[in-house]
Amino acid sequence: MNLKINYLSKFNENKSNNIAVFLKSETKSNDLFKIFGKDKHIVTSIEKLKKKENFTKKKVITSIDIGIEKKIIVIWVDNKISSNQVVELGAKFFDFLKNNMIKDVILHGPSLINGSKKFNIEEFVHGAQLKSYKFDIYKTSNNKNKKDKEFILNVFQNKIEKNLQINLNALLEGINFSRDLVSEPGNILTPDEYVKRLLKLKKHGLKITVYDEKKLKKLGMNALLGVGQGSVCGTYLVAIEWNGLKNNSKPLAFVGKGVCFDTGGISLKPAKFMEEMTYDMAGSAVVAGLMKNFALRKAKINAVGVVGLVENMPGGNAQRPGDIVKSYSGKTIEILNTDAEGRLVLADALDEATDKFLDNKKSPSRKVNELDNRGSHFYLAMYWAEALANQDKDADLKAEFSEIASAMKENEDKIVSELNAAQGRPVNIDGYYKPDEALVYKEMRASETLNNIINK
């Protein structure tokens, strides 16, 4: 759904039939009259709603019908609301509009709720914009109905924080760029097309360097090249640079896996769910979106994103189990399973990042963040376990996940090492973890449990 935002310098009820206001449970009638003037009907209706609806974190948005196709939407705000919760509230607000088919609304700024905690309307709108994202460019539709899918949000706010708005818009652009890349089907976003889209980022001030197969072969990046041997599409390594500090300090490096479609190669994956393997380039999409975000908000940082773009396909020239290749680092690698291609892509990409941009392979001055799929299960599980260990609402869960988080930290190197060696097979570590099943389960359970606690 398309969400159109208009900022108003004056509150004008005639802009829409529907009005949305932020309220706290202790908001007084006199405060409401400041917005609605002498309209006692609206104020009385809101007062009745306050008595009828107990404010909870699960039901934070309610509405009152005050006429034909005219609503007052009440957004209840907690006194201790955080910045992230403001964004989440904005997302819930868009869901409310969508589910109730409210196509236009005027949103009164948070003047009635500003207290000890700053409530930024810009963050609220940002949450609504994030939630409104939809990838439907390939769906057959009637252009005449385009306006029917548009939501108009008129925002009244005396003063907009321009710098915050610029940063949030840059973040939105970066996130949606990543989303678009991940959502594209494999026959559209091939490695060749991916390169074209990355080259367009030059207009934002990013330096883009593309290494095609000829250059990769000359550099000795045979680990990356081997993955793409079976595909008719090209194989590439792309470096995206942002120099926001305007000095020679070493950059922060981000390295992403960009397997545009992963069939598994000769070690072919099962047919079931293979269509989801278009997402195997998500790590590289995050890197690309992040770099776009840096450029749009003119971030005071030197950063580089390195992505390996390839398609892992079976074919007459495809890499075979048992093949031996020499990587960019000079180390030889025996291919036991062609579906373990991610480490091959990242091996050459990581070496390129440390060698060219960090100058020292053995001890880079900045951390290189490897964005892959396999290890993310472990680190997300550890993140949620630590979050649950630090909450104070459920003592039993606090004790349970304190033990789990501690065990994960102690065994981190061993677990990651075993995960990297697993090649898709379940692994037992000290009888405690089976990463391909238990880690994902713990990740999901921990995140759901934490959200349940937060939303109590």
Please, could you describe this protein's structure?
The chain is α/β, with parallel strands linked by helices. It folds into 3 domains: 2-160, Leucine Aminopeptidase, subunit E, domain 1 (3-Layer(aba) Sandwich), CATH 3.40.220; 185-372, 3-Layer(aba) Sandwich (Aminopeptidase), CATH 3.40.630.10; 377-454. Helices cover 41% and strands 18% of the residues. It is built from 14 helices and 13 strands. The chain has a 6-stranded mixed sheet with strand order 1-6-5-2-4-3, sandwiched between helices. α4 runs parallel beside α5, α11 packs across α12 and α11 (374-389) runs parallel beside α14 (435-454). The longest helix has 22 residues, at 162-183. The protein is elongated, with a radius of gyration of 26 Å.
The number of distinct structural domains comes to 3
How much is the radius of gyration in Å? 26 Å
Count of extended strands: 13
Which range does the strand content fall in? 15-25%
Structural class label? alpha/beta
Shape: elongated
In the CATH hierarchy, the architecture of the largest domain is 3-Layer(aba) Sandwich
Q: What does the main sheet amount to?
A: 6 strands, mixed
Low-confidence stretches: 361-367, 423-441
* Lateral strand order in the biggest sheet: 1-6-5-2-4-3
Quote the average pLDDT: 81
